Amino acid sequence: MGKDVDQRLATIMAGLVKHLHQFAREVELTQSEWEYAIGFLTKTGQICSAERQEFILLSDTLGVSMLVDAINNRRPEGATENTVFGPFHVEGAPVRQMGEQICLDGKGESCLFTGRVIDLDGKPIEGAHIDVWSDNAEGYYDVQQPDIQPRWNNRGVFITGADGLYSFVGIKPVSYPIPDDGPVGKMLAHLGRHPYRPAHMHYMIRAKGFQKLVTHTFVGGDEYLTSDAVFGVKKTLIAPFVRVEGGETLWRSDFDFVLAPAENLAGG
Amino acid sequence: MGKDVDQRLATIMAGLVKHLHQFAREVELTQSEWEYAIGFLTKTGQICSAERQEFILLSDTLGVSMLVDAINNRRPEGATENTVFGPFHVEGAPVRQMGEQICLDGKGESCLFTGRVIDLDGKPIEGAHIDVWSDNAEGYYDVQQPDIQPRWNNRGVFITGADGLYSFVGIKPVSYPIPDDGPVGKMLAHLGRHPYRPAHMHYMIRAKGFQKLVTHTFVGGDEYLTSDAVFGVKKTLIAPFVRVEGGETLWRSDFDFVLAPAENLAGG
Is residue A59 part of a domain? Predict the structure, then answer.
């Protein structure tokens, strides 16, 4: 490397080259395996488009995305843990009133999501923006089916009051496969891995003075909880989904989000 | 991973994931660095075409190609060493008579290349096919300039007789930059590295009963010998290029190629 190279870049490249070489030596990579890898990376790049990011999928399915998230989001004890952001968030979802419906296509089993946004001492946080999104009852996000689903289907932003309470009505999420018709899907098949993610509701919660929280709540009991294709599950994020008899919704899921103060920000 | 996974694939993927994760942890990769890497890999894939392989260039410039070559081509003491194949070989070059000219565009300083193809005991090898190729005096291979250079410019195949001798007339090769207008070129620039390869003549030598030899001879004294962008230089491959006074060519380069027997084949 040259003399005037950015110190951080030099560190990253030295580490990358060291581990790439150690990997090739350790497995004694053959010429034809190297050629296969070159072909795989090329196809992975070429299938990428404005609507599809196959390299993120690759990073997700190799557990790299979750690791980078863990490195950059060390949380104090008691704070709600992060998980992967995923490719389906859309900025600018409509702000809704507490208790409002986010499911616009009328499909699926209705569910009340409710709880509080609190700090490490259990005090309610006022003015927290809770951005939520999930797939529909058939396992697709609205952006995957722009011609079929209503815009902003199963999305919304809710802003807490002084009590820190939130509530909204959506559907009990369903598990779905990540896009598996490309190189990454082929890789999973070769590895005997399924492409499914366990059912989950996405949350991004932002409040002044607190670290941004990007997380999911997972549906307890989902068959893919222990084999999430992108390794996103953390035990603390598994939420109860209780069947309600004679209520306005078929299910109810209670979950409190505990935000860490902004001064505990580590690395991100 | 599943139960019925190919054992070799399982080994490779376990090694890859281990080193990818160790790398990310060691350098404490940030979220924005991860995003940059995803973007870099995507661009690298998308610039690939039938005429351009940017992932091979990436592998070359990170020293991975040379390492894979070394792992798969361990040679017994005394045999000529391998180096990178490169992207510019074309199968099917015309077979020429010993001593014939391969430079068809009349440019450059003429050079006689001569020597013997021998075995580890120094005995001549008969019927060895010597496939040679180099850039022209302006630093481009014919396939890079199909509209400018004659077809098969600076290429040819020579077949040894019982004496093992070879000779042909080409030009003294010149150093040239690898394609540096894409992501890899940008990476080299950020790293303060130039994109040049020291001047070299390519050889692929095949003979019955011997390991295929893919190598170059390098022009001694080239300013890039110690900083080859693809790390292809080995000391034993640096050849003399002697200026000839009043000869038919301006330069002469003598080099013997020592082939290893096929039974010593290790891994490739």
Answer: no
**Per-residue confidence (pLDDT) for residue B268, from 0 to 100:** 41
The answer to whether residue A264 scores a pLDDT higher than 80 is: no
* Span B157-167, pLDDT tens digits: 999 999 999 99
Query: What is the value of pTM for the model shown?
Result: 0.86
> Is B142 found in the same domain as B31?
no
Are B84 and B134 in the same domain? yes
Give which of B36, B41, B69, B85 to mutate to test A binding, by max A Cβ within 10 Å.
B41
Query: Are A222 and A94 within one domain?
Result: yes
Question: ipTM, 2 decimals?
Answer: 0.85
For residues B186 and B241, membership in a common domain is answered with: yes
Is residue A161 located within the same domain as residue A193? yes
Q: Which two tokens stand for residue A111?
A: 């569910």
Residues of chain A neighbouring B42 (CB-CB closer than 8 A): 45, 48, 53, 55
Q: Which domain holds residue A25?
A: 7-46
The tens digit of pLDDT for each residue in A83-118 reads: 998 888 999 999 999 999 999 999 999 999 999 999
Question: How many independent structural domains does chain B possess?
Answer: 2
Interface test with B, best of A190, A204, A230, A265 (most B CBs within 10 A): A190
- The four Cα atoms B11, B13, B18, B24 give a dihedral, to 10 degrees, of 160
Which positions 46-65 of B are in contact with A (Cβ < 8 Å)?
46, 48, 53, 55-56, 59, 62-65
Q: Could you tell me if residue A166 is inside a domain?
A: yes
E strands within chain A?
A: 110-118, 129-133, 155-159, 165-171, 176-177, 196-197, 200-206, 213-219, 238-239, 242-243, 251-254, 257-258
Q: Are residues A25 and A92 in the same domain?
A: no
pLDDT at A268: 41
Strands, E assignment, B30-142? 110-118, 129-133
